[in-house]
Each structure stands twice: as structure tokens, then as C-alpha cells.
Specification:
Strand content: 25-35%
Number of domains: 3
Oligomer: single chain
Order of helices and strands: EHHEEEEEEHEEHEHEEEEHEEEH
Helix content: 10-25%
CATH class of the largest domain: Alpha Beta
Structural class: alpha+beta
CATH architecture of the largest domain: 2-Layer Sandwich
Largest sheet: 9 strands, mixed
Radius of gyration: 20 Å
Number of helices: 7
Length: 233
């Protein structure tokens, strides 16, 4: 195996993103073959890389999962949260959620061991579509749809234009390229509506399909190839 830069080695292992790897290296928390690592260092094949007292292995295959997060599960890897999604899935390798889906919502979320993908997607605000099915407490009007589509003032800013269509008397479909905190719920509240159910059905080209709450699957080869292409790898 070829030499790799240390930050890429740590990202490939799923331990953290490259940016976080550089921070850990700068803090002196990373060693290579027992010696304190430096920024930009190359890792030869067979080297023993440790972060603190933890051995890091970047030789295992990367994992990419599509998960149907149920209501009540929290999209974090923090073990201090008893309902964290990583413990809920209990996958036999270290994985992290990509982005967030609030506790009261359900639907598609991605989990991966690829720290670079996590970092890239989270930085790419305003570029990647996410699609949701939403039910509300009052009849959906054309005026409501128009306001949602053109942008709603929340959290000190106006949301970006989005695509919205009515799917039932009290339901609609919405496609966003933003990921503000509880964005759809806040947009609806701003217009006098309350969300009764919110389900994410698509992230970019990856769809929820026929999965049920709590189920997960590996990304298909086609989905993964398209994802890596989008990420510029």
C-alpha cells in the first residue's frame, strides 16, 4: 500500500475528518510508530498509528449506509445521548451520521466511516437537494405553498427558494438545498402552521425507497459511485 498523508489516513479509517485530524496532530495527540506526529507527515505501509491510546486502522473498507431513522432517535454519535443513532444501528464498525435529522422527524439519514465525505457534504451548503414529505395541522393553501417556495424569515435570515407541491389536504412535498436547524418546522410555524409529521425521503440521488423505520442498507455500487463523483473523488 502506498504512503498516505497522516490526515488522510485518519479520515480513511473513519476516525475523523481531515480537518479534525490536523487539529489532533497539532495538539500532539497522534503518534506514528511511537513518535509524536507532525502535520503533513506521510504514513508508510504497516505503520502503527495511535490517537491517544487508541490504535487507528485505515486498512478496512469504508462503510456507507442508508438508514431509516425512526422518531425519537437522535442523529448523533455522542455516547452520552442514550438514543444516539450509532448505538441504535449498532453497526460493527465505527460510523458517523452525515448531517442531522431532528429527534421528532423520521426518514433517510446517511451513516459512514468516511470522514472526508462527512466533511465535504456538511461544507457544501446550498448545493445538495434533500426531499421531505410533510403533514401539517391545517389545510394547505396556494398562498402557503407560494410563501414556502419563495423563502420564509427564520433564525435571522430568509430561507433560500425551494420547490414545494401539495400532496393532500393537509400535506405537501418540499425539496430544500439548505439545512438550517429545524428548518421546515420553523418555516411552517412562521406561517401559522404546525408540523404533525415530517419524513425525509431523499438526499441527493439516494432515496428511502421501501425501507421501514429502523431498517438500514448498504449503498448500492451505483449510488456510491455517484456520491463519490459528486464529492469530486
Amino acid at each position: 500500500m502506498q504512503e498516505r498523508r497522516l490526515n488522510k489516513y485518519l479520515a480513511d479509517s473513519g476516525f475523523c475528518s481531515r480537518r479534525e485530524a490536523d487539529r489532533l496532530i497539532s495538539l500532539g495527540q497522534v503518534t506514528v510508530n511511537g513518535k509524536r506526529a507532525v502535520l503533513g507527515q506521510l504514513v508508510p505501509s504497516g505503520a502503527r498509528v495511535m490517537v491517544g491510546k487508541q490504535l487507528v486502522d485505515a486498512h478496512s473498507d469504508r462503510v456507507y449506509l442508508a438508514v431509516y431513522k425512526p422518531v425519537g432517535i437522535v442523529s448523533t454519535s455522542d455516547p452520552r445521548e442514550p438514543a444516539n443513532i450509532v448505538s441504535f444501528i449498532n453497526y460493527p464498525a465505527r460510523v458517523y451520521p452525515v448531517g442531522r435529522l431532528d429527534k421528532d422527524s423520521e426518514g433517510l439519514i446517511l451513516l459512514t466511516s468516511d470522514g472526508d465525505i462527512v466533511n465535504h457534504i456538511l461544507r457544501a451548503a446550498g448545493k445538495h437537494e434533500k426531499e421531505y414529505e410533510v403533514a401539517v395541522d391545517k389545510p394547505v393553501t396556494q398562498a402557503f405553498l407560494d410563501r414556502m417556495a419563495e423563502g420564509v424569515p427564520i433564525l435571522g435570515q430568509v430561507t433560500l427558494p425551494c420547490r414545494v407541491r401539495k400532496t393532500g389536504p393537509k400535506s405537501f412535498n418540499i425539496i430544500l438545498v439548505q439545512g438550517l436547524n429545524r428548518q421546515i418546522r420553523r418555516m411552517c410555524e412562521s406561517l401559522g402552521y404546525s408540523v404533525t409529521r415530517l419524513r425525509r425521503v431523499r438526499i441527493m440521488h439516494i432515496t428511502l425507497g421501501k425501507m421501514r423505520p429502523g431498517q438500514w442498507r448498504m449503498l448500492s455500487q451505483q449510488e456510491l459511485a455517484a456520491l463519490l463523483r459528486i464529492m469530486g473523488e
